Amino acid sequence: MAPHPSAPASRHRDAARVTSPPEPGRHRAWLVTALIVAFMVVNYADKSVLGLAAVPIMDELHLSNSTYGLLASSFFFLFSLSGLVVGFFSSRVSTRVLLCGMTLVWAVAQVPVLVVASVPTLLAGRILLGAAEGPAASMSMHALYKWFPPARRGLPSALHIGGAALGTLIAAPVVTWLITGFGWRSAYAALAVTSALWAAVWWRVGHDGPYDVTRAERDGTVTAAAPDRRLPYRRLLSTGTVLGSIAAAFGAQWALSLSHAWLPAYLRTQLGLSAGAAASAISGLSAVSLVLLLTVPSLMDVLRRRGVSSRWSSGAGQAAAVCLAGGAMAAFPFVDGTGARLALMTVAFGGASVAIPLHYMTTAEVAPPAQRGALFGIVAAAGTLPGLVAPFLTGRLIDAADHPSGGYTTAFLVSSAVMLVTGCCALFTIQPERDAARLGLTEQR
After folding, report:
1. Fewer CB within 10 A of the end CB, N or C, for the chain?
2. Which of the four CATH numbers 3.40.50.300, 1.20.1530.20, 1.20.1250.20, 2.40.30.60 does domain 26-209+232-438 have?
């Protein structure tokens, strides 16, 4: 049967409704963005509390560096697996439900150590927290992308990941104040309450946006703006863009997991900073990271609108960030002077974070919208594997060295090597336009 003459026009109107949300939707989009930024702030405060309380916890419980490193790495025991599993469920479960459920588990995960302060309760709490935070970044980014079209995702992506830097910026002084003023347990209690409060607000306000392909499929209103095409995951995962994005994420995450677990202890035990001064240094590092996160992805959007390919904007951008951070990581242990060392540390730990929003942007370009959440989960699961290795390895290196400073230096050099290798891999493999054309997601140019 021939299509009705008005069918193309009708499909065009449907696509317009999906790609151009009404003005109230735009306001809601930025409200959801603000909530997701707050989500990432709480996420990183929960994640960093163990590192900020490392010295008093190690002193009170008489922990060796290796045991503390094991506790820090335990956060990642189920982190990648849960990110992978929840990523596949994201096509069937609303992100409203997913994010609310995650934060409620965050709150519960802080409780065991409040009942009994011991290695087993710390271990259990960190494993549970890691399992609940594994899908956090990818699923919150997936939720955010439901409110913005592809050409307008740079700033929201930057704000999303900027919430991570903001979380450290806020958490470092506030959590340190709680720890020094009321004991390290008070920080765990405060974060449990904060997580539960966020979950309550999100349940009332958070909804899936107009670019929600899963909802469109459910309602039978999928359009050209929200295609329902699906591809085998082996094809998606074998593209250079996805592999390069994983490599960039891997290198960046090695630095980030090292900073969460060991940077506060390094500043206090090796540079001789007080708890307050160490918190201020971490806040300063996070402030620089926040500025980079808010500017670089938005600059990538500008470059794309001016015709620069994604390979040479977001692709090369994340590769360069990881390589530059890796170079600084290798240099700062050998630099004299606290100021110069802190400056290089800012590049090493703060600069690497720029790769995180950019690797989501490049991955999204080769992901069918209906599979984006699952692919985000896979990339995040693979990219966050360093968290399982880096903290524990660092503890072992410190214990094995003749002096802790030598162990730290070796750990930083290992980190630098990992970052330089993964950054170079990302530079040569990320080519979103080419891979999208090969997958049939865009026309071959």
Report:
1. N
2. 1.20.1250.20
